[in-house]
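Researcher: We plan to redesign the surface later, but first we want a full-length starting point. Tokens attached.
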């Protein structure tokens, strides 16, 4: 009997230790991994942009005009995103694709959705929790908030149009070129435009639902002209 009790006690202690280690891994170690991975992605992007040859200004359609942009490649870093509402130091790389490995390194662009700044719906996914918690404060986003992205040549400032919308994972219409929610009565868009969709899991530690915000392209600005004014509003981050 004593042997049985001792064995059960040891099993309980072992199980408890494993649970604690798992919690530490989820809460801290994945965040440390993400910090290193995302910082590396941002550095790589910025170096690539710095090394990019300067292209002369050529009228569209003229001889020597810039060819159509190439398709994004899976895993490729394509932009850096800033959301002033989410914090003064909130800066995340956006990579092509939404696979598990990609979302460990940053935010993921849904393959097949629009290019950054183009007509259509540039759609991006990110973790709510684990791997740096990029969208932990997603429910704080409000209409009018800025979402700023850069591809190294241009700043793109999008403005959120609606409160976060809660839906189910099968509601794929939210990333359509003209976003159309599944839920009857939910406000979508009625015509083509230059849209941005952000998605994350809900509840905070689950994945049964999704939280969505939609935004429209409000302004563009050459990187050579300096940072957009929207980034100067960062002291008001995380307000009500």
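Model: Full-length starting sequence:
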């Amino acid at each position: 009997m004593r042997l049985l009790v001792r064995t059960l006690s040891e099993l309980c202690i072992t199980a408890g230790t494993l649970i604690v280690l798992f919690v530490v891994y989820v809460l801290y170690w994945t965040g440390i991994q993400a910090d290193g991975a995302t910082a590396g992605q941002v550095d790589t992007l910025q170096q690539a942009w710095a090394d990019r040859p300067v292209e002369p200004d050529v009228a569209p359609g003229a001889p020597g005009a810039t060819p159509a942009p190439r398709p994004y490649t899976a895993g490729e870093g394509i932009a850096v995103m800033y959301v002033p509402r989410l914090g003064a130091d909130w800066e995340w790389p956006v990579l092509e694709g939404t696979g598990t490995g990609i979302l460990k390194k940053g935010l993921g662009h849904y393959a097949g959705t629009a290019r950054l700044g183009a007509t259509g719906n540039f759609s991006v996914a990110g973790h709510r929790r684990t791997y740096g918690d990029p969208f932990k404060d997603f429910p704080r986003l409000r209409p009018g908030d800025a979402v700023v992205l850069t591809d190294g040549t241009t700043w793109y400032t999008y403005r959120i149009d609606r409160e976060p919308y809660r839906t189910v994972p099968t509601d794929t219409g939210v990333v359509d070129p003209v976003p159309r929610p599944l839920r009857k009565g939910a406000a979508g868009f009625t015509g083509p435009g230059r849209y941005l969709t952000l998605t994350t899991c809900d509840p905070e530690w689950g994945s049964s639902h999704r939280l969505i915000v939609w935004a429209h392209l409000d302004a563009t600005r050459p990187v050579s002209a300096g940072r957009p004014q929207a980034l100067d509003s960062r002291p008001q981050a995380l307000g009500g």
